[in-house]
Amino acid sequence: MKHEDRESDAAVRAVAERLGRAAAERIDVERTAERVLARLREDARRVRRLPRWVQPTALRIAAALVIVAGVGLVVRGLWPVPDRPVAAEPTSGELSELSVAQLRELLGAVDRPAADQDVVLAQDVGLEDLSEAQLRALLASLDGTVERGG
Amino acid sequence: MPDVEPAAAPPTDRALIAAWQGGDERAAAELVRRHTRALARLLAGAGAPEAEVDDLVQETFIRAFRALDKFRGQCQFRTWLLTIGANVLRDAYRRAKRAPVVPLATELAATAGDPHDHAEASEAEARLQDGLRALPRLQREVFLLRAQQGLEYEEIATALGTTPGAARVHYHHAVKRLKERMQ
Description:
The complex is a heterodimer.
Chain A: H1 3-18, H2 21-26, H3 29-49, H4 56-78, H5 100-111, H6 132-149
Chain B: H1 13-21, H2 25-45, H3 50-66, H4 77-98, H5 115-134, H6 137-148, H7 153-160, H8 164-182
């Protein structure tokens, strides 16, 4: 640090040391002590007058509970709560309620082989497998799609 | 010649705090007597209007006594008290913003000596106070605790919740800006 820097630092410091000295000297220390004690006594009286549940510790616990509840509400408001699962409507059609004929029909439907149901899997079919009529129908349906999209 | 008993050493702040916590009002009064002037100097130096210094001192002591359970002796009681005083002053400024009060910048005390010298001294103090008001809070508090109260950086850092290195940097920034103001 340069010499002149040290000097100017010392000058600032010297002024700072004087700051507030006069104001501090004018304070009546005894009177200040009496007033502080009077306020502390008043504090103590006020705390004694409070019902037990309003004592500082109880107030702190109550404040903590309020904060926890508040945070809970906020989180609940921000967090998307999944819809409550809806209980399945009880079905009226129990197996025991079906007639013998209905049961036979149901068993027949379950036993029927997939080939009987004319199901053709898309990956098994190429354009060359389609008949002329089917190709025309396909082209017509594609034209319709293009027209609707256009 | 009768033996003269050596005067008992005055009780430490820590002992007075313990006594007050045990219900001894005299201990609280002694703490107020010990630290009132240092606290008043800090408040006045930081720009508190002189008419309000007494009230601010009382408010600081009340807050300190109410919070004594939190004082763990991490720094001196006086240092802790001074930082509470700085907070009290800041709160007072916030309130004053709603109802502005013009702070008295200059000391008006009549003292013996050359009036011309005193006028110069007052002017320098007024300029320093203007400069202090323009500083960021931490710089101002570190500067006052160091330059006016003569505290060590370690003590200041503990009281303000920073490091001694950071306190040193704040102090040097403050001095640099204050010198510019005062030239």
